[in-house]
């Protein structure tokens, strides 16, 4: 039972505070793997309110007590490092500059459920000689994660953010060595992964992929080939784990059914395989027992149940999650106030 990386927008001034340490320590257990929320690798990596960073000394110091709180409970803690790329606005960028990406194509504005419109600013296309500087930002972030005490890093190559913008052909319209063929489109991702491995070791580097997702206008015409290309390349680099997100589940008789479309990726990957997306206790047990995956990452259920592994062990009832407080900036409500199981009632 893995704690999935969950952006919670509660790291004010890009710094995790005491409430963040409490949140993660509540969810830590002996031997349990927790993956921290997406954490920016540089000033240009930001695109959402109150998300953490790990590019400054101050940020590294702020993460140390959070990591220590998890380790005191016997947990294993990885930090997911990301760059949002074009999923940003001038407001989040240094000196109000344009967000950077592999392209200058803007994300289509989207009307959200509450009627508000999510709009991102027009990006600036990175030049070929700028790309190594971004790769270096990830390398330094990986080093900073280890300095902060994390056991490793997960490189966010999913959900339409910068690395996936390079990888997928709906976005990448480059004509240089970072565009065109699948090999060229994956070049940037693999340079980032290799840089992190060279810095901290392959046994401390995991990767998250979402070949089937179409988040933020980011999809690929051949997701199977893209996923397998990345997996074979990651095998050569010795990547510790691959975390993949299921395509959307379907509901049958009110129950979510997992499509189990990731088996060919799981078979091809040499390291530990983690799945996420729509799993409950029953589906998670089935996926592991049938050899479909090694580990299952839970997001919403782990958020609402700080003692989720214990509840699964006892097959105890679960707290319901409150979607309306997922991203509110309150340091307590919808964050550290979900109750633990009353063991006397079990």
List keywords for this structure.
single chain; 346 residues; alpha/beta; TIM Barrel; eight-stranded parallel β-sheet; two-stranded parallel ribbon; 10 helices; 16% strand; FMN binding; flavoprotein; OxRdtase_FMN_N; fatty acid metabolism; lipid biosynthesis
Report the order of strands and helices.
EHEHEEEEEHEHHEHEEEHEHEHH
How big is the Rg?
Answer: 19 Å
DSSP E strands, number: 14
The CATH superfamily label reads Aldolase class I
Q: What would you call the shape? A: globular
Keywords: Fatty acid biosynthesis, Fatty acid metabolism, Flavoprotein, FMN, Lipid biosynthesis, Lipid metabolism, NADP, Oxidoreductase, Oxylipin biosynthesis
Organism: Setaria italica (Foxtail millet)
Cofactor: FMN
GO molecular function: FMN binding; oxidoreductase activity
Q: Could you characterize what this model shows?
A:
It is built from ten helices and 14 strands. The protein is of the alpha/beta class and 346 residues long. The radius of gyration is 19 Å and the shape is globular. The mean pLDDT is 96. The protein has one domain (2-325): TIM Barrel (Alpha-Beta Barrel). Helix 1 packs parallel to helix 2 and helix 3 (131-147) packs parallel to helix 5 (182-200). One of its GO terms (biological process) is oxylipin biosynthetic process. Pfam families: Oxidored_FMN. It comes from Setaria italica.
Summarize the structure.
It comes from Setaria italica (Foxtail millet). The protein is of the alpha/beta class and about 350 residues long. The protein has 10 helices and 14 strands.
